[in-house]
Amino acid sequence: MEQAGGSARRVQDYIDESPLWADGTPVGYAPMTAMQWRIWWLAAFGKFFEGLVVFMTAVAMPLIAIEFDMNAAQHGVVGAASLAGILVGALGLGGLSDTFGRKCMFVAEMVIFMVFLVLLALSPSYPWLVLFLFGVGLALGCDYPTAHLIISESIPSSARGRLVLGAFGFQALGALAGSAVGYLVLANLPDISAWRWMYATAIIPAALVTLARFYVTESAPWLFAHGRVEEAERETARLLRREPSYPREIRLSRQDAPGRRHAAGGWAALFTARNRRATILASVPWFLQDLGTYGIGLFTPTILAAALGHAATQTHDVTDVIANQILAAEGAALIDLLLIAGIVAAVMLADRVGRIPLQVIGFVGCAVGLLVASFSTQYADPVRTLLIFAGFMLFNFMTNLGPNAQTYLLAGEVFPTAIRGKGAGLAAAFGKVGAVLTAFLFPILLAGVGTTALLYGLAVTSVLGAVVTWTFRIETKGLNLDRAHEHDSADADLDEAAGIGREAA
User: Fold this and answer.
1) Residue 20 β-bridge partners
2) Tens-digit pLDDT profile for residues 193-252
3) Does a structural domain hold residue 80?
4) Does residue 4 fall inside a structural domain?
5) What is the structure's pLDDT at 311?
6) Which residues pair with 26 in a beta bridge?
7) Pick the residue with more confidence: 172 or 104?
């Protein structure tokens, strides 16, 4: 099947192309190839490891605190270390995918993750622990833009939202697995060293994913944007290899290839008139949602233990700490189930309702959930328990339906190919500034101002996130990313792409 004007085709045109039945009837959709699914699964497991390692820290933290005799400030540093690494990795390494290619960084990030994960499980002291957690975060930060781009630049436009978010949803599965692993390890190894085994459980799976990533295709749109048209054609053919074979021939437009000297875009390009709106939309709401998502996610066990009046979390009696954390891990796992429900809803609705409406609705829902949880301090059990669980469950559902999922999705769609890695990396890094601030300050503020005041503050940031999203909205549902930004080299404003997106919606 060929389209009119075949000589002017881009990579995405071939990826979006659907076959014909024997009688000439269009199939109506572009079936995914084995290579496309391989890319998707390997990117999904990267998000799984993030959820596993970061959220498992919530269960491991009290044991780490006892082994290294940590004070409140050191407790905050450990909580913030991996998030600080994610910030630096997203900004410093994620943007390198614009220079060295998506596949290169897709592999490199897993190698870095493997090295630091092994070192983390063997940490000899508090300073080394912080350094190794930072190194793990460095790899996970690189994965934020890279995994998104290697998926979104390899799959049909009509399915981009649900497939990118489907992979992103593995973060929620990882969070749930982190709580479950923490519980199982503690239940079977009630010892201070149990936290090391928690992190060690991810080493072998990570090694398998690292090896498999060597065998995926490079992003053909990235190659095309760098003027490497012949390589782009070869990688597109490899990506779309299927039986029966179609398209029969890949021939990309030479006249539309920007060439190497036009492909590179510096960081300053993100703040030009045509990209500034996209930069604000991608970055600011992500920052605001991470304040709540990581504050609640990292410290759910601690909040539950404090709010529900279980054993004191500051005790240094090992038996009490382990029993308390097992109970808190059970409650956290129950609440984390709503993260999965939320991402499932986001996958189903992103390509139907659109990114912007879901993000706005999600932010508002997060604020409501936080307010409901804050009311728990005014009541005794069983009402107190019901309110805090209901509030946290609503928050987790709405954040994954809306801002936690949609900020990630939008960041990889609103920028041109040449600076997409930098744009998505900057957005992720800016978001993680909020996560780092929350992780470091949360335990200090929790002890200083109390649970209620913190939850009120996070509710305000959620409302602000909804306002910023709507003010700077750019809808990208169903948008062909090659075509949306094809006029950027001629200094076209990104608002034109926003208009195209709204028409498609």
Assistant:
1) 26
2) 888 998 999 999 999 999 999 999 999 999 998 889 999 999 999 999 988 788 888 888
3) yes
4) no
5) 43
6) 20
7) 104
Tell me if residue 463 falls in helix, strand or coil.
Answer: helix
pTM: 0.79
Q: Given the structure tokens 């054993």, which residue do they identify?
A: 311
Please count the structural domains in the chain.
1
- Distance between CA atoms of 376 and 390, rounded to whole angstroms? 10
Q: DSSP label at 20?
A: B
For the domain that residue 41 is a member of, what is the CATH number?
1.20.1250.20
* Amino acid in the structure at residue 11: V
Label residue 63 exposed, middle or buried (CB < 10 Å: 0-12, 13-18, 19+). buried
Cα–Cα distance for residue pair 404/421, rounded to 1 Å: 19
Question: To 10 degrees, the CA torsion angle through 429, 430, 431, 432?
Answer: 50
Q: Note whether residue 5 is domain-resident.
A: no
Check residue 33 and report its DSSP letter. P
Lookup: tokens for 307: 């709010």
How much is the pLDDT for 50? 85
| Owning domain of residue 450 | 11-19+27-504
417 falls within a domain: yes
* Residue 461: partners with Cβ closer than 8 Å, 6 or more residues away: 288, 291, 292
Supply φ then ψ for residue 20, to 5 degrees. Answer: -120, 145
Nearest to 285 by CA among 464, 441, 77: 464
Residues 397, 355, 347, 174, CA torsion sign: negative
